[in-house]
Automatic annotation (TrEMBL):
Location(s) in or outside the cell: Membrane
A Pfam family that the UniProt record links to this protein: Recep_L_domain
Domain Receptor L-domain intervals: 62-183
Record field: catalytic activity: L-tyrosyl-[protein] + ATP = O-phospho-L-tyrosyl-[protein] + ADP + H(+)
Predominant localisation class: membrane
Segment forming the signal sequence: 1-22
Name of the protein: receptor protein-tyrosine kinase
Superkingdom, natural source: Eukaryota
Recorded topology in the membrane: Single-pass type I membrane protein
Organism annotation: Mytilus edulis
């Protein structure tokens, strides 16, 4: 009886609150997942630049989980100054590779991208890449060609497969301050620099807030662009990351980014899917998948 009256009281209270404030009480989902599908065309483009830009915008606007590759190419602000790729800022996970090329934009605002899983990689001359940034302006002094200055990836903590490639980015700054070894597990040279990989004349430095152990690492000028460096120095018998490099504190192989303990429920983020509080390689047969979540019917 007591429980029941307590329920009524709560119910009444909510009703009064609802009546007074005049707003509906709704379930607020803190993290809304929106899934979208990537592409597999490389530097290809069909139709004209306007159609191509519009189709990129429609495909990725509000998307948080890209199933497949994120290919952002042929966006040239010198052709049409109203091209705006800020829609990229909603993306948190890409399951394939990320290809950024043939662009004429000043920044790539992938500010919430945490994980590039690179289930499929981009192949350049026999080498597999999870992230490729190339051809982001012509060298020269044409004032309309501003060129890519900042690759804004402050949330990026892991590229699970493949290396990173840069070429022909004559105005790009800051990427040489990044500790790529902490992002790319492949420790035999995580990054490859082709010709004009980045600008040699960057005058601006990272914000002083980015300094860790006397080294400044950042993705751009602002203090929100500091690199968060995760330790990559694990015991060699750890399959992935570790939570303590002094004891043999290996993360579970189902973890991405990092963990707080050894089990598949201690992951900071799941590599593949989350089922309850565990990270799993695939969802149970009767579950629906949304982004990286398994949802039971
Ligand atoms: C420039 O791009 C915008 C956005 O896609 C489009 O609406 C507009 O028609 C384009 N302008 C020209 C001159 O192509």
């Amino acid at each position: 009886m007591e429980d029941f009256s307590g329920f009524l009281c709560l119910f009444t209270f909510l009703c009064v609150l609802n009546f007074l404030s005049g707003v509906e009480i709704v379930n607020v989902e803190s993290e809304v997942t929106k899934e979208c599908y990537g592409t597999h065309v490389g530097f290809g483009m069909s139709g004209n630049q306007d159609d191509h830009y519009e189709s990129l915008r429609r495909r990725f606007k509000d998307c948080t989980h890209v199933e497949g590759n994120l290919e952002i190419t042929h966006v040239d602000k010198a052709i049409n100054s109203s091209y705006d790729i800020s829609f990229l800022s909603s993306i948190k996970v890409v399951t394939g590779y990320v290809l950024l090329g043939l662009l004429e934009v000043q920044t790539i605002p992938l500010i919430n991208l945490r994980l590039i899983r690179a289930d499929s990689t981009y192949n350049i001359m026999g080498e597999e890449y999870g992230l490729v940034v190339a051809l982001t302006s012509e060298a020269g002094n044409d004032p309309k060609r501003v060129g890519l200055r900042e690759l804004q990836l402050p949330s990026l903590l892991e590229i699970s497969k493949g290396k990173v490639f840069f070429a022909q980015n004559p105005h790009l700054c800051y990427i040489d301050t990044i500790d790529w070894g902490s992002i790319v597990p492949d420790n035999e040279g995580p990054v490859k620099y082709g010709e004009l990989a980045y600008s040699e004349n960057c005058e601006k430095k990272c914000d002083t807030e980015c300094e860790v152990d006397g080294v400044n690492r950042c993705w751009g000028e602002s203090r929100f662009m500091c690199q968060t460096v995760r330790s990559s120095h694990c015991h060699s018998s750890c399959p992935g990351r570790c939570y303590d490099s002094y004891i043999l504190g290996c993360c579970h192989p189902e973890c991405a980014i990092g963990c707080y303990g050894p089990s598949d429920s201690d992951c900071e983020m799941c590599k593949y899917f989350q089922f309850g509080d565990r990270c799993v390689p695939s969802c149970p047969a009767n579950a629906r998948r949304l982004g990286q979540e398994c949802i039971m019917p």
